[in-house]
Amino acid sequence: MELKDKIVVVTGAASGIGKAMAIRFAAEGAKKVVCVDLNKDGAKEVADSIGGVAFGVNVGVEQEIVDMIEAVEADIGPIDLFCSNAGILTAGGMEVSNDDWQRIWDINVMSHVWAARHLVPRMTERGGGYLLNTASAAGLLNQVGCAPYGVTKHAAVALAEWLAMTHGDDGIKVSVLCPQAVRSEMTRGHEESVAALDGMLEPEPVAEACVETIRNETFLVLPHPQVLDYMRKKTDNYDRWIGGMRKLNRQFGDIRNPKKASS
Questions:
Q1: pTM of the prediction?
Q2: What are the residues whose beta carbons fall under 8 Å from the beta carbon of 249, sequence distance 6 or more?
Q3: Of which family is this protein a member (predicted)?
Q4: Which tens digits make up the pLDDT trace of 14-59?
Q5: Domains in the chain, ordered, with CATH?
Q6: DSSP 89-122
Q7: Quick check: helix, strand or coil at residue 46?
Q8: I need a surface site. Which of 25, 30, 193, 260 has the fewest CB within 10 A?
Q9: Is 238 one of the catalytic residues?
């Protein structure tokens, strides 16, 4: 799919990957880029810079996503590409509270479900559309020190797979973005984390990778090409891969206490 003259929605658009996506999609000639973020002022700043439109939305609440979709389609036009990009990081393991588990589940997984629930029927009726869901390399490889993050990102990848295999015949294209470390508010303070071992990318090349993937209509967006090799090693010998991840866990497992993790 070419982005020229398309109506595009990007969540988490006030900063980081989402901001870079919005700017890059506008440069491709998108008809209108809708910048969505909990930080409405930040979203508006990005939207104003590219001639877009801003919405303040908590993607962890289904009705707010519904209201935004309905407003965009009523006032701007049918959404061609929806980038469900907003996400959060929660560190820790089984001790993380139920409330925090639920919050990250709603934002990292259910926001994708809710967007698809209310867009796929509309897109199908008009002959097709595109969903780009941001997951993470953690959704393919897991994340030491962050059980809620690794679990929810796995679920996000599984949902994208399910959408692609279930609605591909309806004209719904699906891609899932799975980068390692990208410079953003989420990674601030974690520049030496395990996810940054292969380098921390700036958001702009990640957005460029998304444009190329959308143009080619391929499923996986891997701005860090090493991730594909790690996936192959994982499936080649799962036990050996677990052993390697245990070594990384000993070094990086407690991301809230780097001195303890490296001791």
A1: 0.90
A2: 144, 145
A3: Belongs to the short-chain dehydrogenases/reductases (SDR) family.
A4: 999 999 999 999 999 999 999 999 999 999 999 999 999 999 999 9
A5: 7-225 (3.40.50.720)
A6: ---BSTTS-HHHHHHHHIIIIIHHHHHHHHHHHH
A7: helix
A8: 260
A9: no
